[in-house]
Amino acid sequence: MPAKWCEDFAAQFELLLELKPAVASFTFDILSAAQVKRLHDAGIFVIGTVTTVDEALAWQAAGADALVASGVESGGHRGTFIGAQSAATLEAIPLLAAVVDAVRMPVISAGNVMTGADIRERLALGAAAVQMGTAFLVTDESGVPAVYKERLLAAQGNPTRLTRAISGRLARGIENRFMQQMAAVEAEVPAYPVQNALTGSIRAEAAKRGDPELLSLWAGTGVARARAMPTAKLMEVLIAEINQT
Ligand SMILES: Cc1cc2nc3c(=O)[nH]c(=O)nc-3n(C[C@H](O)[C@H](O)[C@H](O)COP(=O)(O)O)c2cc1C
Known about the structure:
Layout: H1 9-19, E1 23-26, H2 33-41, E2 45-50, H3 53-62, E3 66-70, E4 76-77, H4 92-102, E5 107-110, H5 116-124, E6 129-131, H6 134-137, H7 146-154, E7 160-163, E8 171-174, H8 177-182, H9 194-209, H10 231-243
Parallel strand pairs: 1-2, 2-3, 3-5, 5-6
Antiparallel strand pairs: 4-8, 7-8
């Protein structure tokens, strides 16, 4: 059995207030208005992650300064906290349009943003910025295990799907043996963070052995378009592409 199921959020929150980063973003749940106020009093800009319009309105009511609108294409975990995770099916562009329409604050678009043309498209649809994950997983500086990076670079088409088998929360990754063998009991595994803690030692051992079949290969639907290069170079390429007319 794991020594603990997860970190103590209350303790992490107090540490955040002490450290006073310029920005703190939250996912998997929402803060209370009182918690947002404490962050604001410490001078911290607060971002909430949403997958539906209802969640956007809830974060607006709690006092968030900006939102990440995370489409179903996104790599890694979904941020859903109202309703069933499986019901939050909006893709990034329709979600962006709906959230921009519903709230009065900057909206950051996430999900399947891989190129400067993608960034330009999101900005044109009302996004204040974009959040990219998968595109950076293949950069030279990425700390993911080598076998994970190899799978990302070998990806063709869309080899990803959503699963709750690995962590107990719906997350998108490249399908591997772990996901396939757990598919039949996926609905029954314990909720996050319990399942996440229970599979942690399997994933750690798989990383040690260099076995991608028992790792979590988190990646978004755009993974086949990820380009391996140093991060600084990727930033230069993205900026050049944004400026192309
Ligand atoms: C391996 C991985 C880990 C991530 N970890 C976090 C995280 O800790 N917190 C968070 O808010 N988002 C996290 N994300 C989501 C990204 O911030 C981003 O929203 C998402 O990757 C966007 O979709 P894309 O992968 O299609 O670019 C993670 C994504 C990936 C792929």
